[in-house]
Amino acid sequence: MFKMNKGFGKKSLTLCAALLAAALVVTGCGGSGGGSKAKEEVSLENRYTPDANRPAWELDTKEEMTELTWYVNADWWNTDFGNDVVTKKIKEDLNINIKFITGDDTKLNTFFAGNDMPDLITTFDSNSAVVQKASTWALPLNELAEKYDPYFNKAAAADTLNWFKLDDGNTYGYPNYSNTQADYDNGTIPAKTAFIIRKDVYEALGQPSISTPEEFKSVMGQIKSQFPDLIPFGFNSIGEGTGSLGDVFQDFLGVPLETENGEFYNRNLDEDYLAWLKTLNESYQEGGISDDSFADDGPAFEEKVKAGKYATMLLDGTPQQGGNLQIFMTANPDKAYMAIDGPKSTVGNEPKLNQSGITGWMISFITKNCKDPAKAIQIFTYLLSEEGQMLMNYGIEGETYTKNADGTVQFTPEVKELQLNNADQFKKEYRMGEFMFFGHDRHKALSADAFPESIKQMQEWGKGKLVPHFILENINPDQGTAEARSLTAINTTWNTAMVSLIRSKSEAEFDKTLDAYKKFLDENGWEAIVKVRTEKMQANKEKLGIK
């Protein structure tokens, strides 16, 4: 899947909301609001005896259906439960009924000011005050596993549990799409980044190399001359960030993740990367990069992808664009986009493409107000298990999918037909691939149905080029600090500066813009930010056992 760029944008708290959350968590959960004390332990007498070798949901004999309330901090979440194949099976197997509630950061914070906490909470920002203060309002998963479901420790990834461990030694939340080093080593995580070119353009130009700055400028010039109706070079929409021309391009060039002595490295000022930004600037001056590409928002970019308007693209999030690429491929099979090596490091570095990291995306908790924490931890174990993962991705064997001798799977013809031609009905009746609490990339590798044909060659090209960026996760200064405020200003300045560098009208203007950015760093406490990030990188290494 893709880096929480998984198709939806992560909701991050604004500074005010973060400060409010911190205050509410500290005060609300400490007194009557939110409930600082857990409810009395649930008795397992006459229900089951916990077994490290069997999941508790298989052992639990509780006859009464457990009613749980689950808050998801996203307005778009589908609150239906028990009516589609996936959630109906969960309801039957676990003997539970879940009432989903959705909202935004404001609604999330109100829980900590009142007495009506839900049984479970899912949020999306691992750096938020709510998550960092989880010990005041959530139950430790490690203790719940010990009391009620020791099999949880077999289903969960030890590295992920350790990653989310707080200072008190307990782990309170567990994410989805948390990729560990073993997942990268196993090669089951597909690349989501590629430099692509239209097949007809590639053939017409004699299958050129575009790996050096000189080759890049030459090919862009040839495209401009021979394919005047096409935009020579495209990239993800800039918006408020840097699209695919920022850290994604840096990954493509294999820019180091840290200095030789293990300190945070400002990749934006890497000489290799700056040399390529100068190349893009020279190509821009020659008409190889369009002004429109910097103004296009997401929908405009997607429409041009569907229409094949770009001759080449540095594309991040190929699964997200898979549908648009498929539309163009279906209509123009001889012109379909394909991945090639594209720009390479000028100093010999190999690509270090990134994917979803160990932090994952949706983080779920069991609150201290949970009516039945034994049943709640059973949900975690069930969804994390092989059985739960297969259910969420593919449904029920024999009913919605069939398994091959080699372990791969495919949807039945009826289900596949509905998936391709009636997405709304597929979602309503089946919901495979959508109900993804604790979902994982590695299960996508089991089926050719997991991704469209349009991106499979791109994923094949990316094999062997993924390098985890774990050490760079969650290293920003804590919200509310002077360093955090400075970093916000610096990031905004860099977003503007990077675009200005590429669109400079001369080399002198390029250098002037770069010098202004460097000066802004010095004037806004960059050294203090580097110190914080380096310390957090070191903490990450200790969690991961990296020397």
TrEMBL record:
<keyword id="KW-0732">Signal</keyword>
<protein>
    <submittedName>
        <fullName>ABC transporter substrate-binding protein</fullName>
    </submittedName>
</protein>
<dbReference type="InterPro" id="IPR050490">
    <property type="entry name" value="Bact_solute-bd_prot1"/>
</dbReference>
<feature type="signal peptide">
    <location>
        <begin position="1"/>
        <end position="28"/>
    </location>
</feature>
